[in-house]
Each structure stands twice: as C-alpha cells, then as structure tokens.
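Take the subject:
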Amino acid sequence: MHELNFFNNHFDQGIQWYIDQMPPVSSSQVSIEKCAPYMWNPQVPARVHQTKQDMKIIMVLCDPVKRLVSLYSHINSYKLADGSDPLPPFSDIIQLKDGKLIENVHPRPSQPFLESGKYSVFVSQWLEFFPLEQMIFISGEDLITQPLVEINKVTDFLGKSGSVTDRNVYYDKRRGYYCFESDNSKWCMDKSTKGRAHPELSPQLLSSLQNHFQPYNKKLEELIGKNFGWPKYFGKKS
C-alpha cells in the first residue's frame, strides 16, 4: 500500500481504520505500506511499536546527496504539474557561505530538506523501539540496477523466500528501467517519476554536500553494520 500516512497523520483514526485501508491478502501473503515520511517523523517509531511490537521495518537508502537533489526535482515536478511557481534554483536554496552549508529556502515545510540525508539520526530513533533484527536496509542504487537481488533480500527477511524470481522481473529497454510482473499485473518505473533531470551542482557545492553527510554516513555504518559505498552520486539522473 502506497503512503497511507497512518502513523504520522491519521493515527487518531485507530488501527481498524488502518487495516481497512489495506488490500485483502491470503494467509501466505504479507501487507506492506510504503511511506517515506515514517523514516524521519520522530513520533512514528513509538506509534508503530505501540501498534505491533514485532513489526518488520524496511528502509531503502541511497546516497544522501542523490536523495537531496532527487527530492528537489520531485518537489519541483509536482509544483509545475499543479501550476504553482517552480522552486528557486537549487544553488539558491542550498548555498555555501563561509565554509558552511546554509539552507536559505525550505522547499516543503512538512519534511526535512538538507537534513533528509542524515540517516543515522532517523535510524537511531527507530532503534530506540525496534531491535536491528527487525530492520533491513536496502541500497536504493542497487534496487534500480539489480532489483531481483535486493527484492530477494526483502523476501528472505519477511520469511517469503523464493516468492519472487527472474520470471517476475525484466528489463524494459524502452523505459530504461526494470519492471515487475505477477498474476497478470505489471508495474514499471518510468520517466514520469524516474530519470528527471537533476539540478547541476558546482564541484565545490557537490564536494561540500558530500563532506556534510560523511560523518552521518559513518555513524550509520556503525549503527547497522553496513557500508553502502557512498558517495555514489556524481550528478546523474535517477
């Protein structure tokens, strides 16, 4: 299920409301909700734990600089689609002044922007309520380039090993992305949501952003025991 926002915006509706929004599943299936704001909202881990203490948590993480510029492009595309004024240039929002990064404009007040790549801060909030054994961390870069490998990590984690095979995943040359097919239904990433042009970053700003996130990347590795090999972002589309 895609972004119900139950644990951040609709928790007062009660757990039955949440269950009612989910699609019906058989005893051999599991329900998953995808909701990015759950990661950084400080109220969510406690609410999830209150609801189901053995909940399994899946986090898909990419290079934090890539995350930042992708978020910029994502917000800007929605503004253009609904006729709103576009965002200022990225270099006007995040600037380097006296050797420090300054966020001059907050593109979307409801969520962090420059802070969004400080994954270790958010993961620490979750680890206050859930053991590491109930969490899995997937590389966003690898999910795009080798989706079956990453999906199988998730199915193993969920106790559903073998439920997704190479018959379910194929590469669509026209779209330029992998697609997923199951039970006569198909889902593909496409260029309306992926492959948006990213703002061009000066070498100095790119380097400053990478240095800004480096200590948080190191702390994340200490917390979860996984090195994602960042930085991996060098100004490409995603």
